[in-house]
Amino acid sequence: MKMLLKMFMFGIMLLLQGRGLWAGILDDVMKGKATVIDLTYPLNGKNAYWPVGNYASFKYEVIANIKKDMVFSGRYSTPEHLGTHIDAPNHFVLNQPSVDQIPFEQLIGPAVIIDVTDKTEKDADYALSLSDVLVWEKTHGQISEGSIVLLNTGWSKRWQNFEDYKNMDMNGRMHFPGYSKEAAVHLVEKRHIKGIGIDTLSGDCGICSDFPVHHVINSAGKFILENVANLDKLPPKGATLIIAPIKIEGGSGGQCRIWALMPK
Ligand SMILES: [Zn+2]
User: Fold this and answer.
1) Domain total for the chain?
2) pLDDT at 7 over 90
3) Residues 211-253: pLDDT tens digits?
4) Is the pLDDT of residue 22 over 60?
5) Quick check: is 20 in a domain?
6) Contacts of 183 (CB under 8 A, 6+ apart)
7) 218 by DSSP, 3-state: which?
8) How big is the CA angle at 107 (ends 194 and 142), to the nearest 5 degrees?
């Protein structure tokens, strides 16, 4: 009987330890043992947005201030696809979840950072190729299921200047890097990632017509993060992402806060 009780207690201990291990990175954050990097640009009137049609810049105005009204308060308006934001699966494909319907489990996961800055320096229209993904995997191991893949193109250097960022030519065509359709298909079908992200205006490169990457990702019920900040501060793997999108009922996407958590 004593033996049984001992075994039972040992089992409970293992369970508790397992729970501790599982809590892992969040525990470390709370104890100050992890580094937190904010991958979000602050919202203001200079933020990049998709520069066509009815899209517009971010607007903020003070509607009450403490000196006059005893309280400080503002109101704002913005397109969903402005600044650091998420494209919900319904952005390009019918009958896919809207931004408020993406479950939390989809919005947390290990980050994979692929750096193509050397290629984009020579070619602003560079699209991440399937072979870039395979080369990354040769060094860092196969991309695990449930990862969130982020592409560092070096475009964050242009963030402060919207003209440089959209890089439009005389014919109104934009030139900035993105993913290729082949790379997106591979990540969805062979690696079962949760979503992708990039430090430019779009998952598709500026000159790509018909948004093939958006269609691949959204058709699979997955999301794209755009205008992601600080990707140059992340290691190729090892960070955990938390994405917190605004909950617009039925929305096609919207501003989100993105944190990367890394053990110190
Ligand atoms: Zn978007």
Assistant:
1) 1
2) no
3) 999 999 999 999 999 999 999 999 999 999 999 999 999 999 9
4) no
5) no
6) 127, 128, 129, 130, 132, 133
7) helix
8) 35
Tokens for 193, please give them. Answer: 């990632």
In a domain, 90, yes or no: yes
**Does any domain span residue 3?**
no
The CA 214 to ligand 1 mean position distance, Å, reads 9
SS3 assignment, position 139 = helix
Inter-axis angle of helices 181-189 and 130-140, nearest 10: 50
pLDDT of amino acid 16: 47
| C-alpha 145 – ligand 1 centre gap (Å) | 24
- CATH (domain of 150): 3.50.30.50
Ligand 1: centre distance to CA 138 (Å): 31
Residue 258 counted as domain residue: yes
Q: Is 205 helix (H, G, I), strand (E, B) or coil?
A: coil
Distance CA 56, CA 51 (A): 7
**Is residue 1 over pLDDT 60?**
no
Distance 80 CA to ligand 1 centre (A): 7
CA of 130 to the centre of ligand 1 (A): 23
Q: Which of 81, 85, 91, 214 is catalytic?
A: 91
**pLDDT for the residue 21:** 46
Q: Is 91 annotated in the active site?
A: yes
In the reported structure, the alpha carbon of residue 61 is separated from the centroid of ligand 1 by a whole-number distance in angstroms of 24
pLDDT tens by residue, 151-188: 999 999 999 999 999 999 999 999 999 999 999 999 99
Domain membership of residue 230 as a residue range: 37-43+80-263
